[in-house]
Description:
Elements: H1 3-18, H2 25-43, H3 57-77, E1 96-103, E2 108-109, E3 114-126, E4 129-132, E5 136-142, H4 143-146, E6 154-162, H5 175-181, E7 184-195, H6 205-220, H7 224-233, H8 242-250, H9 261-274, H10 280-298, H11 302-320, H12 326-340, H13 348-370, H14 376-399, E8 402-403, H15 407-434, H16 436-444, H17 447-462, E9 468-469, H18 475-490, H19 498-516, E10 520-525, E11 532-537, E12 540-544, H20 549-562, E13 568-573, H21 581-589, E14 592-597, H22 602-607, E15 611-614, E16 620-623, E17 626-632, E18 637-642, E19 645-650, H23 655-664, E20 670-675, H24 681-687, E21 691-694, E22 712-715, H25 716-719, E23 722-725, E24 729-732, H26 734-741
Parallel strand pairs: 5-7, 12-13, 13-14, 14-15, 19-20, 20-21, 21-22
Antiparallel strand pairs: 1-3, 1-6, 2-3, 3-4, 3-5, 6-7, 8-9, 10-11, 10-23, 11-12, 16-17, 17-18, 18-19, 23-24
Helix pairs in contact: 1-3, 1-12, 2-3, 6-7, 6-15, 6-16, 7-15, 7-17, 8-17, 9-10, 9-11, 10-11, 11-12, 12-13, 13-14, 14-15, 14-18, 15-16, 15-17, 18-19, 20-21
Amino acid sequence: MSQxxxxxxxxAYIIGLLSTSVSWxxxxxxxxxxxxxxxxxxxxxxxxFIKWRKFKPSLFLVAGVVGFLATVYFxxxxxxxxxxxxxxFVNNGKQVxxxxxxxxxxxRLTRSQKGxxxxxxxxxxxxxxxxxITGNLYVTVPLLQxxxxxxxxxxxxxxxxxxxxxxxxxxxFDFKRFLQQQSTFAGMNGMQVSFTxxxxxxxxxxxxxxxxxxxxxxxxxSPEGQLVSSMVLGSKxxxxxxxxxxxxxxxxxxxxxxxxxxxxxxxxxxxxxLSKGFSPKWQFSCGAVALFGFVGLTGLQPSVLRAVIMGFxxxxxxxxxxxxxxxxxxxVAATLLLLWNPLWIWDLGFELSFLATLGLVVTVPPxxxxxxxxxxxxxxLIAIPLAAMLWTLPLQLYIFGVIPPYSLVVNIxxxxxxxxxxxGGIFSAIAALIWSTAGxxxxxxxxxxxxxxxxxxxxxxxLPGNSLATGKIALWQLLAVYGLMSLVWFLPWLHKxxxxxxxxxxxxxxxxxxxxxxxxxxxxxxxxxxPVIVVQDRGKVLLVNSGNVTSARFTVLPFLQQQGINSIDxxxxxxxxxxxxxxxxxxxxxxxxxxxxxxxxxxxRSLNSGSYKVLVAGEKVVAxxxxxxxxxxxxxLWQLQxxxxxxxxxxxxxxxxxxxxxxxxxxxxxxxLLFAKTLDADLVAAIKPEVxxxxxxxxxxxxxxxxxxxxxxxxxxxxxxIQWTPNNKFESTIETVENNASLL
Length: 744
């Protein structure tokens, strides 16, 4: 097979997998292949199109078939629960069961300070009935229950099974999809873990991993020790504290915590240098052993495997004395990995790794050439992070809608430190395998570089505007931007006009974002604790309630970032601020100009940079075109005047109090009623709203009575976030969230 044919078929396979984002993608690919085949056949004999003669018409027909078969292969490999999978036995209630199985991963610490690990389930004891089962299980247990666990250990867990839920809010975390990517369809809140005491662990590379991490932490301490281990083995192989991890992600240094190409290049360079006097076959063998060992220690991560496959390409070049083309090596790596696991086409780590590497291959040389007025070392130092950022930024905008403005500066300043720590960490890991104390001693020498790196990251994190929310771009914008970038790369006559293409790309991103900022939209987010309402009024933002700290971190803030919101103009807490951790989380991330609440909270008053006011009954707040009035602070009961419509927000108090207080108020023509899960149908009938929104999965009181009411009922736990726009339509966003998730 010629090189042209191989490249075309590899690209057809990858494009076919990408087309799975739409239901008709496979048929579209085969149609395009047929169309291109006919087109090339018509121009094949013309002298003016002689350059197309290397593309035979049959090649495009075959490529179309390959792309179609890729979509079929993707569907075949998509995980589905087996008949006896543990997820088939999940009870909707809170039944306590016992699951027996084998631990398949080292325990990790979660944000909620619990131990988390994966279990290969084998037996289920449900109400005294023992059932043979299969399938993976995502398990969380109290931290002390997980400290003695290790892979391949037989255990029994007593707890409650559950099925993971999809994202119910725009920008929210899709837990169901995350577990499905791991071929897992159920989770378990464990209460107690039982295992055979004194049982000897079965040997595995996890013990080598753990030995290296302990050696590096012993004299370096925490978090410096974990950071060094993470930069050598990857954050998935090390329990790096979440506060450090969040700092690196926030300033654009997440790649420094992921073992990939940089560490692979260092390992290969070290092996080739040490085996310089040996024959090419010995050099290849030594390099192969080092790469296999690296994969074993870090785990089967897409970014690591991509780097290792390209590393093998470099080793083949050394063994055969041939020059390997990096771009071809990257394409081969992508194709092999996607043949092994086609689902990785939508893995964010896989996508970012390949885009960053593509940027380094095709963009660094022209950038260095443009910076020829600088010393070559400095030009390369600037070009490498700039190229990686240019090729990954559109995808980051599509997924997160956030830009770290200081990312380029931080990457340039920290490259020397990251290089020193990575090289020293590799030597420390090798030394630890020989003599643990020697590994600790070498790691101790890295204290000041590591401390300086953390200090730099904290410094930029504390700068104003360290994270700029632009809003998520649409799929067509993503494709258009990458299409223009590819044209600049392919077409030589565009090289000198790159600035014009850059202006067009920026316009494609910013103009739709600017236009959407002029809209008016009300969103009631799905939250179990309290109603969280976001009013976007032509660039101004009103936030009513924050939820608890989990809701604020994983629901409210991601939604605000997705919408391109960097500050809140008005914030109102409708409860008595007994649990203010949610507001503390939000205030730590973005400024609030005016804060209102029923009761006073000194922590919020001190943290908030804007004004702070305690409201009393009968007092109104004017937030743009929206008015909010605290009608009764005992329920509490709030009236919102939104676009000449009256919304009523009822606090989560006893139902009898609601009846007495609400029915005694003179509340004319309420269009929208927001209530807790215990609202009574009789009360809805008395108020007669057009729409009622409950922040729960179900209504408890007089459920049958709701069937007699013409009011349209939304349950955020069932329908997801609810949005209203001036076209007078209420829409559930859960379908939009699921459709977007299918594209990732």
